[in-house]
């Protein structure tokens, strides 16, 4: 039978011999000798997953994960007084965590690892196998084929904060136009594309009349109050005139869901803000009523762009995850002109409340302005 330390070891083979237990005597510090005195035998790892290892050695241990040939190697070395985790390339070792273990202290405080420097690695309870898809649908819409191809997810798989936001904005009454007073979408399009109108003037004001930055402007129309648990007001209607786009940006580690209320928006996801952000997958064009999401660990960096000829209107909803005690109220972004992370991050603001915006559009609208007879 297997001995206790190997019950959870998928790679252990049962020799049929009785289990043999050896215990370390903590008073005398005498115990079993280190298990490996010779060179260790390599263990093949196929695919992704968790490597669970239980060691009884009183000496240091060293783990090396490497491809069959060449580099890179991941090397974790632990002794009674030090720990180091590094990436070994052909010519240099790159430390992945700072060595913060102090002399005689056998523990590395997790919070020191997280905040000592810009974190380069993260730890999670479960292994990362495949990412969740970016598109969220109700359980009524998901099919076996969707699950097989992992092309959509249901809300239940999302982080808790995204689930709550999703429920608040998935209903059939969350629409742009809920009265017949006037054509709200047409009035918005006219306003943001016509010089002299309220929307166009506001966009110019946001880029300080810098025509090079004009295409990077969009309107943020806030809905409701700031509840103190999101970067800025949690519900924001964003207005994207044709050809306008956001820079590549993150979201202060907040969770978010985004629903298209009108038109289409192209969403491109990135692994980080850089240097040299890498696209995670092909950009997706989201159409009316489609909902996408982002969490503190997935899809945190993206860029939105309206590539259509019609204005797009989206509903952005934000909330910090329950475990987030930092509440970074700023979005970092890549400055389009320098291609570097901007020194001053974006503070989520409000260009107008929805109530005022509705009144401005109503006052500006006329059938003639919007191409009607
Ligand atoms: Fe965003």
TrEMBL record:
Its EC number is 1.13.11.20. It comes from the Eukaryota. One of its GO terms (molecular function) is iron ion binding. Keywords: Iron, Metal-binding. The keyword Disulfide bond does not apply. Pfam families: CDO_I. InterPro entries: CDO_1, RmlC-like_jellyroll, RmlC_Cupin_sf. Fe cation binds at residues 249, 251, 302. The keyword Cell inner membrane does not apply. Belongs to the cysteine dioxygenase family. This is cysteine dioxygenase.
């Amino acid at each position: 039978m297997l001995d206790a330390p190997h019950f959870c070891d998928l790679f252990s083979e049962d020799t049929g011999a009785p289990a043999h237990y050896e215990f370390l005597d903590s008073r005398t510090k005498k115990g079993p000798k280190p298990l490996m005195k010779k060179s260790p035998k390599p263990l093949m790892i196929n695919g992704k997953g968790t490597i669970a290892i239980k060691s009884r050695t009183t000496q240091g241990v060293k783990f090396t994960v490497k491809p069959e040939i060449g580099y890179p190697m991941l090397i974790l070395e632990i002794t009674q007084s030090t720990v180091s985790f590094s990436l070994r390339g052909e010519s240099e070792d790159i430390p992945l965590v700072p060595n913060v273990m102090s002399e005689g202290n056998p523990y590395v405080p997790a919070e020191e690892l997280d905040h000592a420097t810009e974190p380069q690695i993260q730890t999670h309870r479960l292994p990362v196998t495949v990412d969740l898809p970016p598109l969220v649908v109700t359980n009524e819409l998901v099919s076996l084929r969707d699950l097989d191809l992992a092309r959509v997810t249901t809300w239940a798989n999302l982080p808790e904060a995204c689930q709550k936001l999703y429920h608040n904005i998935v209903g059939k009454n969350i629409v742009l136009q809920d009265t017949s007073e006037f054509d709200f979408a047409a009035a918005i399009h006219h306003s943001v594309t016509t010089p002299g109108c309220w929307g166009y003037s506001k966009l110019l004001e946001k880029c300080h009349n810098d025509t090079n930055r004009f295409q990077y402007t969009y309107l943020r129309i806030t809905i409701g109050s700031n509840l103190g648990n999101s970067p800025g007001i949690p519900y924001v209607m964003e207005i994207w005139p044709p050809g306008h786009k956001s820079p590549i940006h993150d979201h202060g580690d907040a969770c978010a869901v985004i629903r298209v209320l009108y038109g289409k928006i192209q969403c491109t996801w990135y692994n980080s803000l850089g240097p040299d952000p890498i696209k995670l997958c092909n950009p997706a064009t989201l159409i009316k009523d489609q909902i996408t999401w982002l969490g503190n660990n997935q899809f945190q960096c993206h860029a939105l762009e309206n590539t259509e000829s019609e204005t797009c209107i989206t509903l952005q909803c934000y909330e910090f995850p329950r475990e987030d005690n930092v509440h970074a109220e700023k979005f970092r972004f890549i400055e389009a002109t320098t291609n570097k992370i901007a020194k001053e991050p974006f503070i989520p603001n409000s260009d107008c409340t929805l109530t005022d915006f509705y009144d401005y559009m109503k006052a500006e609208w006329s059938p003639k302005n919007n191409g009607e007879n």
